[in-house]
Structures are given as C-alpha cells and as structure tokens.
Structure prediction request, 73 residues.
Amino acid sequence: MAISDEVLHAAAAALSDAARGENIYLPAAKARRIVEPALEAAIEIVRRRSANPRIERTRAMIREAIESQRPGL
Prediction:
C-alpha cells in the first residue's frame, strides 16, 4: 500500500514542527523516514481491526438503527 507523497510530507512536517517545539532538531527527511513506517503500521492495524467480524456486526447494527429512524424508509 502506498501512502501519497502529500500525506507523507504533511506528517513529516508536523513531526518536525513538534520536535522543534521541544527544542529538538529533526530534519524533514529524517522525520519522513520515521513517519512512513509508522503510518503504514497504523493503517495495517486499522485494516485488521475493521476486518474483525464483531466490529462488522456492530457496524451493521448501527446502520440498521440509523436507517430505521429515517422517515419514509
């Protein structure tokens, strides 16, 4: 899975800015090397959790509850 350059750039800039706020020098290139695997790991965790059948059943129940409250359906 590829994360877009725009997202990586924004995340690296945010990490670099946060480090600067703590008086830590963190160049954008190094921040990007830190951010990219972290984002990929986070996305994989979300993907695995969303495939959980219990979560899917909960989502279906919520969808049904919302749809049953809509007038005219």
In short: The mean pLDDT is 84. The chain has one domain: 5-69. Residues 5-69 form one domain.
